[in-house]
Design a protein that fits this description.
heterodimer; A: 280 residues; alpha/beta; Rossmann fold; two-stranded antiparallel ribbon; B: 327 residues; five-stranded mixed sheet; 42% helix
Chain lengths: 280, 327
């Protein structure tokens, strides 16, 4: 699998993935572009630099496990997987269509490389805990990454799993998309979460707080997390819709696809950003 | 096949807890297969998983009062090659954590096994809060789920061993009380294959769980009146044994189902679906009639909520009367 080591190349890849997210959700006529754009840098860091994966052998037993808990941002995961070589890029345009392996929310039995089905919020961390337990029993070394949203911290199961991971000192790195937005509004209005770091700390986790749209910082946090024993939450302060001006920080774009005009505008903006990265 | 003279022996059957079979079968399995792991949600004594926990502490995971997390952790273990057995009371698992079972276990096709106790009205003094009467209905509707309702201690042992052998999610339910242990190690048990315990041509009683024993006692009483019943132990509710059910419906043209569960969605519904599409006959369902239970002694509750051998006898009379009218 192609590993990108230069920050500039990773930024360009994140830009490519963002463009795919726009094309996919436009083509599907539905989906969740906002969170997908916001998490593009985290997915790029994992799929193109940090995680040990083999797109040709998606079930390789020593692969790192990437558990996506908030499955609605799968457009960004599918884009990363396609660009990484898990399946043809052109298949991205089948997203959400009848017969597609790219279900509206990911299904592990449809698409090799997807570890877990998700879509109902709050279930991913429990699955990650089970995988980490199995890894420990088998004395394996693979890493377990769990990608979560801030909104799904409204779900009780999330906290059950947080307690369980701490009790068992499970080596899990969760990357939390702290964009402050959930489907129908700002998290602090819908259900205030306040400081996630303080909450995790009280539950016995270690936390690292970063700018989740800075790939360099994401990689640094992943390396730091690896040195810590037990569960670590990397709280990624991201901007929902990052890269598309009219989607940024606007909760209306949590679960709405762009129309033709909006998609064109979004792609033009992302192209301008791409040229800026190239000039860096 | 059961002979008349065996009933005397049955009626003096020793009573045994089916929950004990959970503990006893799991330690047998655990000794044979290192991939067997167990989880419980703060009920390890009640579910008898404590036996496994003592013997294999590294493979036992106490989840605390978090059944949703327990289902998800089980899914993660199963997706990584383990064979998790997760236990709680029926009202907590599969009822409280239904969506986790649906998505994390069934949609993921995770090889996880869910064992519950305290199902049915015989949960007794704890009252309606703890009497799961809907669990068969909800698990039966989940794609890929196998549902087993064993009738006594030995059959529970076999059910747990069978669950470990097949790949895919399995749900097994038993009650809290001690029940007559009338089958033996030699009694056949094939997953998905209903056991015909008695043959008679007047009516067919299809039962599961503790109602199998009640059905046998009812058939014995009826035989003294000259009514000959077939008694089928339908321990596997899903996949249901269509052939055996249709065969005996065809031969008797009168069917009574009996279960310690709501009459909505359980064995009675499963049999009605089979017969409705294949061979409609007169039918009655014995079960709890779409109400919550209450506190009391198991036998008092069985009488009050209509799940006794007398209810089966009444239903057999009714269904034979209807059959004769139709003909």
């Amino acid at each position: 699998m192609k590993k990108l080591n230069k920050i500039k190349d990773l930024k360009l890849m994140a830009n490519t993935l963002r463009q795919q997210v726009i094309k996919m959700t436009y083509e599907a006529g539905s989906g969740h572009p906002g969170g997908s754009l916001g998490m593009a840098d985290v997915f790029t860091a994992l799929y193109f630099n940090y995680a040990n994966l083999d797109p040709k052998k998606p079930n390789w037993e020593n692969r790192d496990r990437i558990i996506l808990s908030n499955g609605h941002i799968c457009p960004i995961q599918y884009s990363a997987m396609a660009e990484a070589g898990f399946f043809p890029v052109k298949e991205l345009l089948t997203f959400r269509k009848i017969g597609s392996r790219l279900q509206g929310h990911p299904h592990n039995k449809s698409l090799p490389g997807i570890e877990n089905s998700s879509g109902q919020l709050g279930q991913g961390l429990s699955i990650a805990c089970g995988m980490a337990l199995a890894r420990n029993l088998d004395r394996k070394k693979y890493r377990v990454f769990c990608l979560m949203s801030d909104g799904e911290h409204d779900e009780g199961e999330t906290w059950e799993a947080i307690l369980f991971a701490a009790k068992n000192k499970l080596k899990i790195v969760s990357l939390i998309d702290r964009n402050g937005i959930q489907l129908s509004g700002f998290t602090e209005k819908i259900m205030p979460l306040k400081s996630l770091a303080e909450k995790y700390d009280a539950f016995g986790w270690k936390t690292i707080d970063i700018d989740g749209n800075d790939i360099g910082k994401i990689l640094e946090a992943l390396r730091d997390a690896e040195k810590i024993s037990g569960p670590v939450a990397i709280i990624c302060q991201t901007m929902m819709g990052r890269g598309v001006s009219f989607m940024q920080d606007n909760y209306e774009w949590h679960g709405k696809a762009p129309n033709r005009e909006e998609a064109d505008r979004a792609l033009r903006e992302l192209e301008v950003w791409r040229r800026e990265i190239e000039r860096e | 096949m059961i002979k008349q003279e065996m009933f005397l022996e049955f009626s003096s059957s020793e009573k045994k807890s089916m929950r004990d079979a959970y503990g006893d079968s799991l330690i047998e399995l655990g000794a044979k297969n290192r991939n067997i792991v167990a989880l419980c949600a703060d009920l390890s004594e009640s579910t008898r998983f404590s036996k496994f926990a003592e013997k294999f502490p590294a493979r036992y995971f106490e989840c605390g009062v978090s059944e949703q997390n327990m289902a998800g952790v089980s899914a993660g273990l199963a997706l990584s090659g383990k064979i998790p057995f997760a236990a709680s009371f029926g009202v907590f698992s599969p009822e409280l954590n239904l969506e986790q079972i649906r998505l994390s276990i069934c949609y993921n096709e995770a090889n996880a096994k869910l064992l519950s106790t305290h199902c049915g009205i015989t949960t007794g003094p704890d009252g309606a809060t703890h009497e799961a009467l809907e669990d068969i209905a909800i698990t039966r509707s989940l794609p890929g789920m196998t549902v087993i309702v064993p009738c006594d201690y030995e059959e529970t042992m076999k059910a747990v061993h069978s669950a470990a052998k097949i790949t895919g999610p399995v749900y097994i339910r038993v009650g809290r009380d001690k029940y007559p242990a009338f089958t033996t190690k030699k009694t056949p048990f094939v997953l998905g294959k209903a056991n015909v315990l008695m043959e008679g041509s007047d009516a067919c009683i299809i039962a599961c769980g503790i109602m199998v024993y009640e059905a046998l006692m009812a058939a014995y009483q009826l035989s003294k009146e000259g009514i000959q019943c077939t008694v089928i132990n339908c321990h596997t509710i899903k996949p249901i044994d269509v052939n055996t059910i249709v065969l005996w419906a065809r031969r008797t043209k009168a069917v009574v189902t009996a279960e310690e569960h709501s009459i909505i969605g359980g064995l009675g519904s499963a049999v009605a679906e089979v017969l409705g599409e294949n061979f409609p006959v007169q039918m009655r369902r014995v079960g709890v009639k779409d109400v919550f239970g209450e506190s009391g002694k198991p036998e008092e509750l069985m009488t009050k909520y209509g799940v006794t051998r007398e209810n089966i006898i009444y239903a057999v009379h009714a269904v034979i009367k209807e059959k004769n009218k139709v003909i």
